[in-house]
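The material for today's practical consists of a large collection of protein records. There is nothing in a record beyond a sequence line and a structure line. As an example, a complete record with its sequence and its structure tokens follows:
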Amino acid sequence: MKAMSQVRGVIVAGALLGISTTVLSQPSPDPRATFKVGTAVAGRGQKVTGVIAVPAGVDAATSIAVAVVHGARPGPVLAIVAGAHGTEYSSILAVERLIQVLDPAQISGTVI
């Protein structure tokens, strides 16, 4: 009887070990399956545009254009700001060109 009890214990322990191994090896859900900035909401592998609404304060309300290129694979987030001063056209044009050539299927992480 004692031997049978030990065999059952080994079988139960093995079964539990197998279950815990299966649970641990499951891929964890993507913490950033979607990425939202203002009205731009991008899923993995998408490129979207939108605006960030700036409410009225001392100045009138306005909106700031934004693009989100959410890579097909997780990775770091890079935010690029252009045109901080109204006459800095070259930086705005450079970011517009970058947005056009970035392929979300080819990058890891997110570019804002």
Remarks:
- Confidence is low (pLDDT under 50) at residues 3-23.
